[in-house]
Amino acid sequence: MIESIKQILLARVYDVAIESPLVEAPKLSAVTGARVFLKREDLQPVHSFKLRGAYNRVSHLTPEERERGIIAASAGNHAQGVALSAVRLGVRATIVMPRTTPSIKVDAVRGHGAEVVLVGDSFSDAYGHARSIEQETGATFIHPFDDPMVIAGQGTIGREILEQLPDVTHIFVPVGGGGLLAGIALYVKRLRPEVEVIGVEPADSNVMQASLAAGERVTLDHVGIFADGVAVKKAGEHTFEIARKYVDRVVTVSTDEICAAIKAVFEDTRSIVEPAGALAAAGVLQAELPETAQVAAICSGANMTFERLQQVAERTLIGSGKEVLAAIIMPEEPGALQRFCTDIVGDHSINEFNYRLSNRREARVLVGISVASADDRDAFLTRLQDCGYRHTDLSDDDIAKEHVRHMIGGPAPGAGEEHLYQINFPERPGALGDFLGTLGTGWNISAFHYRNQASDTGNVLIGFEAADREVLEKRLDEAGYEWTSVDDDPAMRLFLASKDV
Fold first, then answer.
1. Where are the beta strands (DSSP E) in 121-243?
2. Could you tell me if residue 455 is inside a domain?
3. Can you list the positions of beta strands (E) in 129-228?
């Protein structure tokens, strides 16, 4: 267990890592009313802070351990940090990665000279295989976060912040397994206990927040896949103990708020950080800060594939409060759309309008409208109400934003008892066919939407006609993929004939 800041002061990181700049963010400062600075860990040689902890751990190997080599499991930033550290120190490294890992990340690890082994569809599969190799070969396992030397390496960021911004009052830190948070909090709180250290997690991957609330480490049943760099189901033993002692609080942010933060960081730096790398900035944007605050936010990484930018851009407007997404019932008659534009839309811009003829009485549409502020959004929804349009505000509905806005149609005429599910799939060839083969042919598929998210995991929205829901869900369990029923999600009222908007 790391107990002393001496381990951080003595950490070996600068053979490979840079002392990353702490740059002022004028636009973030203007929005929050505080003075905000970004700690640019995305500028490290592997575009992530992970290099610090990995190098410090590898540099402390004994001669015998160096001879046996090292092993790690990772789908991204940790893999690159370990690989670069190994080649610089002349140590043989094997990195186990899921087969679903995007080729850009696999190629980057191989480019640093490590041997890559592709196993399974998830980090858990890769982790288990790496541990097996550890037992078989005697190689030393380099943990991505729950190791005292790794924590000490990450803690050097805390030291740099105190030197670069001596009057800092708040530090916002992204949280996955907790190595970065633990290292920074330990160093900062030992020297400057009045400085607030705030962890930031995605709302759907809040393992540290849940653990601190429970007073013990908990395991999440599911974690969100958007900010894949922090998609951790259980916090580390060492990291949790440090966090419960030194961290002031952990807050959560939504996917839309993360996307808005990616845009905010871009506007201040002209650099694009990955979703996990924007967590701290997202936390700052949601915080209530005094005007006297001097805030440091860690931009922890920038390893995002180019293909994900479209998905980020789509959700940025809602995340920044500049768009309202609504399901609306309109009369199915000539002139209805023109009246809607005149009476409701006015001088606002329509970002999208999704509609297909469903029946002759009423039309179900999904509309995205630009708004100037939260008050403007409320005014738009009030006009809908006053003009007699039945509607549902879907601005905070992930199902609507990930799936429904890309689908054509409405309730299925004549469909039997219909049930809809969101199912996570590994992004590899054949995964969908494997799933359907396991599920069998006993149910008719009534709705389906899938969109590649340029990540190692994606999800589909799928509907089944099934009178016996219990039997269907038992078979879904047997298929071995994570699934969630979304029958009661507001967005699904567009598709279930038995429900209304």
1. 140-141, 170-174, 196-202
2. yes
3. 140-141, 170-174, 196-202
Q: How far apart are CA 191 and CA 168, in angstroms?
A: 12
- How far apart are the C-alpha atoms of 59 and 68, rounded to whole Å? 14
CA angle 467, 469, 474 (to 5 degrees): 135
pLDDT digits (tens, 9 = 90+) for 210-255: 999 999 999 998 888 788 888 888 999 999 999 999 999 999 999 9
Are residues 156 and 295 located together in one domain of the fold? yes
What is the spatial distance between Cα 142 and Cα 310, in angstroms, rounded to a whole number? 34
Report the catalytic residues: 50, 300
- DSSP code per residue over 226-258: TTGGG--SB--HHHHHHHHHH--EEEEE-HHHH
Within 8 A by CB and 6+ apart from 134, the residues are 71, 140, 141
Question: Parallel, antiparallel, or unpaired: how do β-strands 170-174 and 294-299 relate?
Answer: parallel
Examine the fold and report which residue of 141, 163, 192 is the final residue of a domain before the chain moves on: 141
Looking at residue 402, its amino acid is E
pTM of the model: 0.78
Residues 109 and 27 in one domain: no
Task: Give the DSSP letter of residue 326.
Answer: E
Beta bridge partners of 299: 40
Domain that holds residue 369: 321-396
Same domain, 99 and 203: no
Tens-place pLDDT, residues 53-109: 999 999 999 999 999 999 999 878 999 999 999 999 999 999 998 887 777 788 889
Q: Are residues 166 and 122 in the same domain?
A: no
Query: Which residues are bridge partners to 465 per DSSP?
Result: 418, 444
The residue behind tokens 């070969």 is 137
Q: Are residues 429 and 483 in the same domain?
A: yes
DSSP state, 44?
A: S
- Which residues are paired to 457 by β-bridges? 426
Structure tokens at 319: 């995340």
- Count the domains in the chain: 4
User: Same domain, yes or no, for 294 and 194?
Assistant: yes
Question: Which of 366, 396, 426 is at the close of a domain?
Answer: 396
Answer whether residue 412 is part of any domain: no
d(CA 479, CA 171): 43
